[in-house]
Amino acid sequence: MKPPNHQTISFFLIFNFLLSSFPHLQATAAAGGDGATTIAFATLGRSSYAFDIYAIPTNRPSKEIRLTDGKSVNFNGFFPSPSSLSVLPQLPNRPDPTTHILYITERNGSSKIYLDALYDTPPLTSGSRSMLEFPTESTNRLQVNLLGDEQTGGRVSMKDKPSLVGQSLIYVSTHENPGQPRASWAAIYSTQLTTGSTRRLTPKGVADFSPAVSLSGVWTAVASFGEKGWGGEVQELDTDIYVFLTRDGSSRVKIVEHGGWPAWADDSTLYFHRRCDDGWWSVFRASFSTKDGQLGVESVVTRRLTPPGLHAFTPAASSSNKSFIAVATRRPESEFRHIELYDVVSKKFIDVTRPVSPNAHHLNPFISPDSGWVGYHKCRGASNDGKDNNDLVLENVRSPLPNVSLFRVDGSFPSYSPDGERVAYVKFPGLFVMNNDGSGVRNVLTRTAFSTAWDWKRKGVVYTSVGPTFASESTKVDIISINVDDEDLSYKQLTLGGENNAFPSPSPDGKWVVFRSGRTGHKNLYIMDALNGETGRLHRLTEGPWTDTMCNWSPDGEWIAFASDRENPGSGSFELFKIHPNGTGLQKVIQSGLGGRTNHPWFSPDGKYIVLTSDYAGVSAEPISNPHHYQPYGDIFVIKSDGTGIQRLTHNSYEDGTPAWSSKYTRPTNVEWPSGRSKCSFDDCHWLNISPNKVSSSSNKKRQCAH
Ligand SMILES: *[C@@H]1O[C@H](CO)[C@@H](O)[C@H](O)[C@H]1NC(C)=O
Ligand SMILES: *[C@@H]1O[C@H](CO)[C@@H](O)[C@H](O)[C@H]1NC(C)=O
Ligand SMILES: *[C@@H]1O[C@H](CO)[C@@H](O)[C@H](O)[C@H]1NC(C)=O
Ligand SMILES: *[C@@H]1O[C@H](CO)[C@@H](O)[C@H](O)[C@H]1NC(C)=O
Question: What CATH code is assigned to 24-44+390-676?
Fold first, then answer.
């Protein structure tokens, strides 16, 4: 490898050098010309994920150090080896950095890969000098955005699980559309940092996750669906482990059937996780031979390492001390996910995070090259000064559409008033209204409600459904209208029977409300009088032994879009349809492959487009590497109202849903809650059951779980 030279440094000048005195993010005034609009959506639990990366010494697990800067959401870290750091510029008048940390950050609304160099100050005397011992709150941090717009062409994508090998950055990105519904866009790329040239390492039409590069840099291992694609799994993915040459993705071979999250100890030893037939997630080792640049696929020996009785997953290996690995665990006696070391010789676990922070979830460990530190991420909680808690009312999400500004709302079922000035949303258990800049939040209903919509004619009138979500046809849910400008917030009950009447959407002439109701034993669509509800007038719009739901009336009054499972009732699969309010013209708008889901349609203000949530892009990461999401696949998409021209707006591994479209453009900027109160109250994966059931062997995949 060539030593750094002036070229390297000038190359880095085109990378955004972000010193830690990062100026507060300012959106450009240029965006949002004529016809520009705004889409708001919800992400399950996301407002609690103020992650930072921390590390603890492996030999005295007592002291925890925060490595990232307490801004935004930072996760999936990696300690680069000293030899790969020659790509970094030498700063004049600076000592050598004490450590480097590579990680994913979501600052300023998109997924990025940052490399931070951390410096000691004042320089410690050699006697007391030890890696990572410095105040991370200092200004002694250099941040480099490794994939700026120059390298990505301004494309929006999710990035994940970065490694730095020589001068190449290896990572997951979702910027290429495989052109198939229900296919994951996640693939592995390699970007040469000195030239910016990027190469796809995953074959076309295949999705790869969780890449790990071997110590020599020669091999990369991934979890992959291979040719079979995503089958709709939301817990353990049906992946196998593949290995290929990091150089160009060639010599790709399946090395282990059934497994995920590979980690290399050396070029012939891989660790990975797998859910066993006894129900426990366990870490396995695969050993094989590597000769003359060939992998001995026939010689692979796999062995279960961690025993039943606890879940152990997302392994990390150390290249300098092969006697231990790091894993995340869920033990029956704890509600929290912890990082532990596992001594592969003595077969003993050693606590890492439990003594330091017993009541927090810790995710995705990684080990420093000298094996002295184990890193992981966890929620940072509230900072002392209440700043940078990432506690946002509205989070600016970078939009791939230049004339649409995109926001994540800290709540669900947002909807905009017809003038775009106000937002109604639900945060269980209550209904809230605020200005579109996040100010003036008011709780206007304290009961459990879901879905919101504003009347087009009567100012301040908001419709909602009161009762539980995801409930049966006979559950007591009724539609009400509230005048939020009314001092006493009087409301009117519009449906009476309580048979799961929900998802109200008013007609633009202000006369009608379309909604779904389970009154016949099936959820179908009905239209009622907007002022007096079903006692005023009621007619049935759709009829059949299936579910029609999530309806939205177009701004020109001509169409009602809705989600339906009518083609396969009860299957859990939903497609979008539209129908004229007089019951004619039924059309299917879009379907996300066989058995897929498209839900929550909402027309654009000009009626030409529909925004929706769908599993169209499959999953983007192994669900076990994230907090809990019921459906770890929802992304927000825009289609033309005839169903063509699908465009993906969000790229992440979270569950994004309930989008709504506003006629007004809102400047892309984050809005913080006035009083910072970071909660860290997110759930670990619900299906990490502490008394797991045996996994049925319906598939013929090998679970090989015996010791
Ligand atoms: C933040 O994002 C906005 C657009 O979403 C962009 O205009 C602005 O330049 C970004 N700021 C930084 C510091 O990257
Ligand atoms: C390797 O790790 C084990 C387990 O933490 C430890 O007991 C041993 O001393 C380490 N060996 C070296 C050479 O650091
Ligand atoms: C964005 O603007 C272009 C050009 O004005 C227009 O053709 C397109 O329909 C707009 N897209 C949306 C989603 O509004
Ligand atoms: C139903 O409504 C559509 C759209 O408004 C209209 O084109 C059509 O003529 C109507 N059909 C009947 C039978 O009224």
Answer: 2.120.10.30
